[in-house]
Amino acid sequence: MASYDVVVLGCGPAGERAAIHASRANKRVAVVERAGVVGGNRVNWGTIPSKTLRESALYVLGLRRAEIHGIRAEFKAELTVADFMYRERLVKQRELELINESLDRYQVEVFKGHGRFVDPHTVAITGVDGQVRTQLKGDVVLVATGSRPHHPADVVFDGETVFDSESILALPRMPRSMLVLGAGVVGIEYASIFAALGLQVTLVDTRDRLLPYCDGELVGILEKELRRLGVVVLHNDRHEGIERLERRVRCRTQAGNVLEADVLLYCVGRDGNTADLGLETIGLTPNAYGLLEVNEHFQTQHPHIYAAGDVIGYPALASTSMEQGRLAMRHAFNIPGVAIRTEVLPFAAYAIPELSYVGASEESLQKAGTPYVVGRGSYEANPRGQIIGDLGGMLKLLFEADTLKLLGVHIIGTNASELVHIGFAFLRGNATAQQIAETLFNYPTLSDLYRHAALKALTDHKKLSGAG
Description:
Number of domains: 3
Oligomer: single chain
Number of helices: 12
Distance between the termini: 73 Å
CATH topology of the largest domain: FAD/NAD(P)-binding domain
Shape: globular
Structural class: alpha/beta
Mean pLDDT: 92
CATH superfamily of the largest domain: FAD/NAD(P)-binding domain
């Protein structure tokens, strides 16, 4: 039995970064990966593939909207999803090369197979034949096995008319219409992507508003833009029955709607990959969704067993998963470094348009009773926004009323997921509205929205102060 300082189960974002971070601290590290490749859902089945499709959708949308300006584009009759993902293989291949190079460079040993706990410190690795190949002993163990799309018992995923968020990218044909059940980040992203590609899309949301944890004003803009794409949004509803028709699917909802489409995409929740890890043998019990409970240091009930990434639930983003993996190893081995609270890391929804934020929202500040000042910058009033034709975007900054210190950054529009990092830097530096307003930005840029939003906040704050 080989012994290691840390054994990592899963080599997605959390597992990969944790393994490398521990190895850089001169720890002997082993990674167990059940899939045939490293990289997890981020590289292979979710993030990169879906964002590749999104770029093609933006291109198609731009051509269609440009027709009114005299530019006309033709598309071949039978298009498939693969036709719109010509760069996916190249991007995935390069990402996998980089990950494997990093693992090799830091001498992380990768074991292919399924890892299962034998006891709190021992993991047995089985191959595809179910036979135990070897056992690994770890002083520390990190569970980073990720998640998978939730499959309720009453939904039959046939790969022809009913799909989940991973199998949808293998559509055998490009349909004319799509029904999306579930309006979380993934559901909204795919609804907007396929609508931009020209499909008739209906999005069913189980809640009374989209993305309730995001700024309400920006969510209102997002829903308006979705409707502009042609997406029909139904709130406060969920499926009651799904039946397959000839080359189509019908869904009856609890609100009494009868919806038909060529394909149905089910995006309601994800389950943690904990079903066959032998957790029962060590006294760990996942919740009903297969997720593990951890403390602020990402420790489970066993102090030496950590968990990070999608397997512990929200926010289940690649960026936060990476940081959680690093933080877990820092705590396990007392590795020095600046610790970043993962709850204040940037969030992004790669819908069309993008929505991104970091820090406090108006709703959270109101709930906490914190007086605040708002500054807004409109893409329509920004020359770069005019140039690229994005007139619906907005940057919204929230400042503490007394000190005018930045508390939250919220953006919707082109490059929101990139622009938010400027705000994150301001936030971490405890910047004030005055400092942001006096920051120099290139012209013309969307980044200059920060200056305008801060100036607006200063003007409004002065008016309020004068009124007081």
